[in-house]
Amino acid sequence: MKREIKITSGIYFLYRGEKLVYVGSSQFCEKRVLHHLGLKDFTHFEIQEKEETGLELLKLETELIIKNFPEYNKSFPAKGEYVTLANFLSKFQNRNTRARNKKAIKENIPPAFLMSGRAYFEKNKIEEYLKNKKV
């Protein structure tokens, strides 16, 4: 018997018992959930239908991952908006410039969140800080 897959764009939540262990987004949530259920031992799921699509949906997913830190989410989709200092500062060729900038940023801008032992900063805040302050 073929199961009909409903098309639902939104955010889905996968649980093991009462614990939220994964947050994802898709234009085809039911299909993605069925795929995940075949990979891990999730006990149940929840789907929240959303009108947002594309980048707006990814931003919403990222906010939920940051808020909940589910066990199986090792990264987040809106990566361009949040950066580690090492990745952001890699564009500076001079080692001393990188070190000065890293120190100044850490002293003046708090990280947006920590994930998998790494501090992530809002890229636009770093850019604005560096633009307004000579380090």
Secondary-structure topology with pairs:
Blueprint: E1 10-16, E2 19-26, H1 29-37, E3 44-49, H2 54-68, E4 82-83, H3 85-89, H4 95-108, E5 113-115, E6 118-122, H5 123-132
Antiparallel strand pairs: 1-2, 1-3, 4-6, 5-6
Labels describing this entry:
alpha+beta; 2 domains; three-stranded antiparallel β-sheet
Briefly summarize what is shown.
With 135 residues, the protein is of the alpha+beta class. The chain is built from five helices and six strands; from the N terminus they run E-E-H-E-H-E-H-H-E-E-H.
Description of the molecule:
The structure is a single chain. This protein has 135 residues and is an alpha+beta fold. The chain has two domains: 10-68, no CATH class; 79-132, no CATH class. It is 39% helix and 23% strand. It has five helices and six strands; from the N terminus they run E-E-H-E-H-E-H-H-E-E-H. The strands form two sheets. It has a three-stranded antiparallel sheet. Strands 4-6-5 form a three-stranded antiparallel sheet. The radius of gyration is 19 Å and the shape is elongated. The termini are far apart.
